[in-house]
Amino acid sequence: MKVLIVGSGGREHAIAWKVAQSPKVDKIYCAPGNAGIAEYAECVPISAMEFDKLAAFAKEHEVDLTVIGMDDPLVGGIVDVFEAQGLRVFGPRKNAAILEGSKAFSKDLMKKYNIPTAAYETFTDPHKALEYLQTAKMPIVLKADGLALGKGVLICNTLEEAEAGVKEIMEDKKFGSAGNQMVIEEFMTGREVSVLSFVDGDTIRIMTSSQDHKRALDGDQGLNTGGMGTFSPSPFYTKEVDEFCKKYIYQPSVDAMKKEGRTFKGIIFFGLMLTEDGPKVLEYNARFGDPETQVVLPRMKNDIVEVFEACIDGTLDQIELEFEDNAAVCVVLASDGYPVKYEKGFKIHGLEKFKDADGYYVFHAGTKFDEDGDIVTNGGRVLGVTAKGKDLKEARANAYKATEWIDFANKYMRHDIGHAIDEA
Q1: Coil, helix or strand for 118?
Q2: Using CA atoms, how far apart are residues 71 and 48, in angstroms rounded to an integer?
Q3: CATH 3.30.360.10: does it fit domain 327-423?
Q4: Cβ distance 105 to 147 under 8 Å?
Q5: pLDDT tens digits, one per residue of 258-317
Q6: Has this prediction a pTM greater than 0.85?
Q7: Does 368 have pLDDT greater than 70?
Q8: Domain 2-93 falls in which CATH fold?
Q9: Which residues pair with 143 in a beta bridge?
Q10: How far apart are the first and last CA of the chain?
Q11: N or C: which end of the chain has fewer CB within 10 A?
């Protein structure tokens, strides 16, 4: 088979690495890819939003399967474009990707089908939102309706912060058109857990649990980012939580989308909050998480290409997912100043140390080759250093040890990824 992967981050590197292990595959392309993905795939200079060019490339090169990694092309309808040309593609169609593309849609869906989530109100008028805040309980959560690179959620502790947040999202348009509509919801307390799943329209298969660290600084301080590190599995995701979610959240979400005429095939990523009142949905995503994928796929035993094909063909009920009985931790190495302002173009040293290190991986998020053929930094999040261990503590120790193998100017990371493990 020939496989095309669409995207350029650490998630797509992890997908390419996993696809390369499939005996079914002998050629991988990635558009646009990065310097790390180039180890497994031929990188193609087409952006993820150039749907017609990507489809033409897939036809011309007789690609058997295209895998969409990113949210923007999915919400934009890339799957519909590929399907219209008779191309096999993994990911939800545009009318199903709205599950991530509009927070207002997903909240309304959960309300209609009694899927547990936080109480909320939706606003298109900033003045009405400000009026509502006068009587709302603090802290409170503001969410830009559309896609905002994982950064369009503000947790406001005071009325003043919330009012400033409304201005930022709806009037200053900090997140562009994503802030034309806004969801204001109650602040939930508890443990956050990320659960990825494969879906074929009817059947859902749950992957292992993980937990992300969104804030830029140690102690969950600083600005929201795309994610500074992850661990898997979550010690807080118990058998009881799993059984509850399967009954009241996972399958009901798949069934709800089908009833709405929006049959979902691809990945549903459930962002959960384990509250005192039981698990509730924080948000849905319509694709693999980043950097959750970097700890989930190294633990997955299945041939991922077989799973992708089962989702497309509606035969996922014939597959049981298997995961190693161990743990994995990913620490993101970022450019100092991320997520606001940072420099790029610094040479990265030490990548070769991962070549023969069993159970250690380095997934490239923001890298490229310079004119001399050296790998240099090319983004805010540069690398995801992942390591496995017999348990979470060992995996964390291994991951932090491996971060020392890498060096580049302006290297920055959090030092407390997996701190919740100590409290488990």
Answers
A1: coil
A2: 10
A3: no
A4: no
A5: 999 999 999 999 999 999 999 999 999 999 999 999 999 999 999 999 999 999 999 999
A6: yes
A7: yes
A8: Rossmann fold (3.40.50)
A9: 153, 183
A10: 44
A11: C
pLDDT at 71 over 70: yes
Distance of alpha carbon 19 from its chain centroid, rounded? 18
| Span 115-142, pLDDT tens digits | 999 999 999 999 999 999 999 999 999 9
Q: Can you tell me the distance from the alpha carbon of 202 to that of 219, in angstroms, rounded to the nearest whole number?
A: 40
Q: Give the residue carrying structure tokens 């409170």.
A: 140
C-alpha dihedral, 284 to 289 to 291 to 297, nearest 10°: 130
Q: Does domain 119-186 have CATH number 3.30.1490.20?
A: yes
Select from 3.30.470.20, 3.10.330.20, 3.30.70.980, 3.40.50.2300 the CATH code of 191-318: 3.30.470.20
Q: At 301, which amino acid appears?
A: K
Which residues does residue 184 pair with via DSSP β-bridges, in sequence order? 121, 142
Nearest to 288, CA basis, from 297, 275, 279: 297
Backbone dihedral region for residue 344 (phi beyond 0: left; psi -120 to 50: alpha; all else: beta): beta
Pair of tokens at residue 81: 């474009």
Of 65, 110, 109, the residue nearest 91 (C-alpha): 65
Distance CA(402)–CA(361), nearest Å, equals 9
Token pair belonging to 65: 């399967």
